[in-house]
Design a protein that fits this description.
The structure is a single chain. By secondary structure, the protein is an alpha/beta fold. The relative contact order is 0.14. About 13% of the residues have low confidence. It is a lipid-anchor; GPI-anchor.
Length: 489
């Protein structure tokens, strides 16, 4: 990873939320690095991945023992052609073909190789001057080798970029690649990705920006928590998330070169559970919040960015293990989701389970009870909404529900909605496009469903239907279209 660009987004510092519900989510995979001398065997690692519902993994090489262990597992795999052989792959098509035969064709499809990551953060590497001109030729030769072997439809070629590839990033709408890269490297790379049906890999770390600028960047903004947001003066879009701002800066850069339809995959992102004294924000609670909130928003289809609301985002969290031989500050050795003994550093869900994680269950009541305001209107009075929803007057035998208060405005409702569907662990699958409760497609209706899900999961404890004043309790079942609001879980 490259900690560069830590200041590129500090002017966006306010705090973070999520986008509106989408019809489908992306996937959450994990980076399996092995810069350590105390890790489990590859066979045990595969069992660990399967036990935790991890369906996608990204490697930093093409180690045979790892590929063998992954064979037949059903786990999608990204293999890597390392920087060390990039020049050989660029200058010798025969080398690229031999590499693909040995490291892809010999294993696929039993080992479900999805892509080849050609190099890693080449522009930020110590050998950037040598490697940068070799990157696209190497990618082209690897792609041609895949074509020769009839694998190009299944296996894509890309290359993970650090955010230091950007020359400008604030506001996000002004995102642009560095002048020395834009025409000579990025344009032909994007053309290759476009013509081959591939995607651009981006390594993005809000942690770096926060650690370097914690005096001006809100921690909530970095951790996908509710906040006021900030408006991009260039396009009028409001941002609630530092990661969204980073990704939209990359989207703007690709669009400026004529490739605005290129899909992005976050090939690395994460938050360290431990750091040095000057690494502000490093710690297990923040790491759990960042990775957990990100995973939930991706899986629920809420990771689409303001500038690309039509594009789901796939994410590979960094990293599977704490790696004890990585050089650099303490944080570098503490990005893992698991300790080498396979115990969790903290909980992260890799699939939507229809409920909150154990961590959410333990912490949720304390979080939402900060300002209890459970208001129960008189039975039979009903409650009209501003968007066509209402509370029916039917008898409920003492049951209660939680609904949104439209009077607080859409922005506050959206903030609370995103919290409920993210860190709050509400079941928001029914309000995704095409699902039973998507219509009416209004913030009030969606927020009401999410608030009620959260409230019911918390067993209707006083204070769990508040959302900082954006919700209240009712004694009749809410009515939004044909959606049925559950009571009790």
């Amino acid at each position: 990873m490259a900690p560069g660009c830590s200041v590129l987004f500090f002017l966006l510092a306010t705090s973070s939320l999520f986008s509106s519900p989408a019809d489908a989510g992306g996937f959450v995979g994990v980076n399996y690095g092995r810069v350590a001398n105390n890790l489990p065997s590859p066979a045990k690692v595969v069992e660990l991945l399967k036990a935790n519902a991890v369906t996608e993994v990204k490697l930093y090489d093409a180690e045979p023992t790892v590929l063998s262990a992954l064979s037949g597992s059903g786990i999608g795999v990204v293999v890597a052609l390392p920087n060390e052989v990039l020049v050989s792959a660029a200058s010798r098509p025969g080398f690229a073909l031999a590499w693909v035969k040995k490291n892809v064709a010999a294993w696929h499809p039993a080992t479900q190789i999805r892509a080849v990551a050609v190099g890693n953060e080449v522009f930020a590497s110590a050998a950037a001057k040598t490697l940068t001109p070799a990157l696209v030729p190497a990618m082209q030769n690897v792609h041609k080798a895949l074509q020769q072997l009839g694998l190009d439809a299944d296996v894509k070629v890309s290359s993970p970029l650090a955010l230091t590839a950007l020359q400008s990033s604030y506001p996000s709408s002004a995102g642009a690649f560095r002048a020395d890269l834009a025409g000579s490297v990025m344009r032909p790379m994007l053309e290759l990705l476009h013509s081959s049906g591939s995607y651009l890999m981006v390594n993005a770390y809000p942690f770096f920006a926060y650690a370097a600028n914690s005096d001006v960047i809100s921690l909530d903004y970095a951790l996908f928590r509710p906040n006021a947001g900030v408006v991009d003066a260039g396009n009028g879009l409001r941002y609630y998330s530092l990661l969204d701002a980073q990704l939209d800066a990359v989207f703007a850069a690709t669009k400026a070169l004529g490739y605005g339809d290129i899909r992005l995959v976050v090939s690395e992102t994460g938050w360290p559970s431990k750091g040095d004294s000057d690494e502000k924000g490093a710690g297990p609670d923040n790491a759990a919040a960042y990775n957990g909130n990100l995973a939930r928003r991706v899986l629920s289809g809420n990771a689409r960015t303001p500038a690309r609301p039509d594009a789901d985002v796939d994410v590979y969290l960094f990293a599977l293990f704490n790696e004890n031989q990585k050089p650099g500050p303490t944080s570098e050795r503490n990005y893992g989701l698991f300790y080498p003994n396979e115990e969790k550093v903290y909980d992260v869900e890799f699939q939507l389970q229809g409920g909150a994680t154990k961590r959410d269950q333990e912490a949720g009541s304390a979080r939402t009870a900060r300002s209890p305001r459970a208001v129960v209107p008189p039975a039979g009075s009903g409650s009209s909404s501003g968007n066509g929803g209402q509370v029916s007057a039917s008898s409920t035998g003492g049951a209660t529900w939680c609904v949104a208060d439209a009077k607080v405005g859409k922005e506050r409702l959206q903030a609370a909605l995103d919290y409920a569907c993210g860190e709050g662990g509400a079941d928001c699958a029914p309000i995704q496009a095409g699902a039973a409760c998507y219509d009416p497609n209004t913030v009030e209706a969606h927020a009401s469903f999410a608030f009620n899900s959260y409230y019911q999961k918390k067993r209707r404890v006083v204070g769990t239907c508040d959302f900082e004043g954006a919700a209240y309790v009712v004694t009749q079942p809410p009515s939004f279209g044909k959606c049925e609001f559950p009571t009790g879980y």
